[in-house]
Specification:
Elements: E1 9-10, E2 30-40, E3 47-49, H1 55-68, E4 77-78, E5 90-95, E6 107-112, E7 115-120, H2 123-136, E8 152-160, E9 166-172, H3 180-192, E10 197-204, E11 207-208, H4 217-220, H5 237-249, E12 253-260, H6 265-270, H7 299-315, E13 320-324, H8 333-349, E14 353-357, E15 370-373, H9 379-384, E16 388-391, H10 394-397, H11 419-423, H12 427-430, E17 439-446, H13 454-461, H14 464-473, H15 481-497
Parallel strand pairs: 3-4, 3-5, 5-7, 9-10, 9-17, 10-12, 12-13, 13-14, 14-15, 15-16, 16-17
Antiparallel strand pairs: 1-2, 2-8, 6-7, 6-8, 10-11
Helix pairs in contact: 1-2, 3-5, 7-8
This protein binds ligand TNX.
The site of ligand TNX has 9 residues, from loops.
């Protein structure tokens, strides 16, 4: 590449500069950088927010201030008056309600030698602008350093907004329990890549992970098992609410799932009356699923579902409730559909949208509810009735699949998923009968049959989850394996600085 090419270039087409790390993931809708000119953080650099900033904007300002500061607890300062110009060398975050062109999550970022300015019409956009700023600085910005680092970034002009509304990941805390501190760390990593949904798979055969006050045995008994026979665990409602609030502060909506009527063994061990023969099954502590289901003809089962959904949504209000609905054994189609329809009524009456895995689509599902595609299923039926789909195709997005035959963690029923397989596919053509306008967004689930420590989770999620982030956020015309492959290489040093146990997959020039 000639020197002239360096003058003004789009990040996607310029060579990665590992010293400065101009390698934003997901790639913004438009980004121009001028690598020969730069903004340098100095000891005088201050983060400013508008004089009339609200508390949310203050928090985003504090987030930005702590990134560039060498001391924890730094706060943003308010500009002295509306429309006041910030002093040179500062970073300004500004809400501008007239910038409706940016949408609810978009932002504009301008960096010059005099300072950085991020504008958005909503707080979420400012937060995402700060994440882009963060990625334009070198990886050393990720250190909690108590010394002055050389934080320098190129001149940049970015105008950006997401392609899909739903940019999700899922943690399976049922097969192995994951402590709240690890969930929060995962949330922090999702935020760096502008992911905005965290689906929590809270109950399955092997464990029930959230306290339900009106059905205490669900955690007293059902919370005490996991794969491999370990102690299990569960979140109290207060701990769960704290996770939801933490996620919210990173612009991530938590989506709680209680799987039913299959995948319910932990509930059946806790309350045998939920089972048709009223006898408690043994705790299930291996990989796979026993054929046990909730007794769908029994009224108390619907009382159970309604209490569980009501308590979870009361502990931390969110606009969705996921009912699972997958892999049911030993139930006729008619009984299964009747069950799903009755549960739909319960969930919708609580004022939230219901989500279920692809199997629910043939039931009479309202188009306001959502179907999550994962395997060859009938999701298209929901698209036909005008409903929205979340795309989580197993062969591309199941983060629990092994990278290749040498990966020791993970499963392989949906095939090996190397980084290219996770990235290089088209959500619009992947699922016949489900067109662009039916796709609410994308989600990459991380099932945890083989995952125990946070290092295990990180290894399977990173870097593949950044492929989800880019396919979900970036404009289709910006998406391309060659550009991503270059940019993800530079993310290696950032992930390493954050202590993430990411897979150093072959074929990428991981930069340190
Ligand atoms: C299928 S995806 C399942 C999960 C397993 C996963 C393992 C889905 C709706 N059901 O119960 O954990 O495969 O990859």
């Amino acid at each position: 590449m000639t020197a002239a090419c360096h003058n003004r270039a789009t990040v996607g087409v310029q060579p990665a500069d590992h010293t400065l790390g101009y390698s934003v993931v997901p790639i913004p809708a438009t980004i121009h950088v001028e690598p020969r000119d730069s903004f340098l953080v100095t000891p005088r650099t201050v983060v400013y927010v508008d004089s009339d900033a609200n508390q949310e904007v203050d928090s985003i300002g504090a987030f930005a201030a702590n990134l560039i500061s060498s001391r924890a607890g730094t706060v943003a300062q308010h500009l002295p008056a509306a429309n006041a110009v910030a002093p040179d060398s500062s970073i300004t975050l500004r809400m501008d309600a007239t910038r409706t062109d940016l949408g609810a999550e978009g932002y504009q970022l301008d960096a010059t030698s005099r300072g950085i300015r991020i504008v958005a019409s909503q707080p979420a956009g400012l937060f995402y602008g700060v994440q882009t700023m963060r990625q334009l600085f070198p990886p050393s910005i990720e250190h909690q350093a108590s010394y002055q680092r050389r934080l320098i970034m190129p001149f940049a002009h970015v105008v950006d907004a997401p392609h899909y509304e739903w940019r999700g990941s899922m943690l399976d805390v049922a097969r192995h329990f994951l402590p709240a501190t690890d969930v929060k760390r995962f949330i922090d990593l999702l935020a760096l890549y502008k992911i905005n949904r965290l689906h929590l798979h809270l109950a399955d055969d092997q464990g029930f992970r959230i306290e339900i006050k009106s059905w205490p045995n669900l955690t007293v008994i059902g919370g005490r098992s996991q794969i491999g026979g370990g102690p299990g665990g569960f979140y109290t409602q207060a701990e769960y609410a704290d996770i939801v609030a933490y996620a919210r502060s990173r612009y991530i909506t938590v989506v709680p799932e209680i799987d039913m009527p299959g995948h319910s063994n932990a509930a059946l061990t806790s309350y045998p009356d939920l089972r048709c023969n009223r006898t408690a099954p043994d705790p299930f502590t291996i990989v796979g699923g026993p054929p046990n289901t909730l007794c769908t003809s029994r009224d108390s089962v619907y009382q159970y579902i309604s209490d569980v959904a009501r308590e979870i949504l009361a502990a931390a209000p969110v606009p969705y409730f996921h009912i699972g609905g997958d892999e049911v054994q030993g139930l006729s189609k008619a009984d299964y559909h009747a069950f799903i329809e009755r549960v739909q009524e319960i969930v919708n009456r609580l004022g939230v949208r219901m989500i279920g895995w692809g199997e629910i689509a043939p039931a009479n599902i309202s188009p306001t509810n959502v179907v999550q595609h994962w395997t060859k299923d009938s999701t298209f039926l929901h698209a036909q009735r005008g409903g929205k789909i979340i795309a989580s195709p197993g062969p591309h997005f199941y983060l629990d699949m092994k990278y290749d035959s040498t990966t020791s963690l993970g499963l392989k029923w949906a095939g090996y998923i190397d980084l290219r397989k996770a990235y290089d596919w088209d959500p619009v053509t992947e699922n016949p009968g489900v067109g662009a306008s039916s796709i609410l967004g994308l989600e990459a689930p991380l099932w945890a049959e083989t995952l125990i420590t946070r290092q295990d989770y990180e290894y399977m999620a990173f870097p593949r989850i950044t492929a989800l982030a880019e396919l979900a956020w970036s404009s289709p015309n910006q998406i391309g394996w060659d550009g991503y492959r270059r940019r993800i290489a530079a993310q290696g040093a950032r992930l390493a600085a954050l202590g993430v146990n990411f897979a150093r997959v072959p074929g990428i020039n991981w930069a340190w």
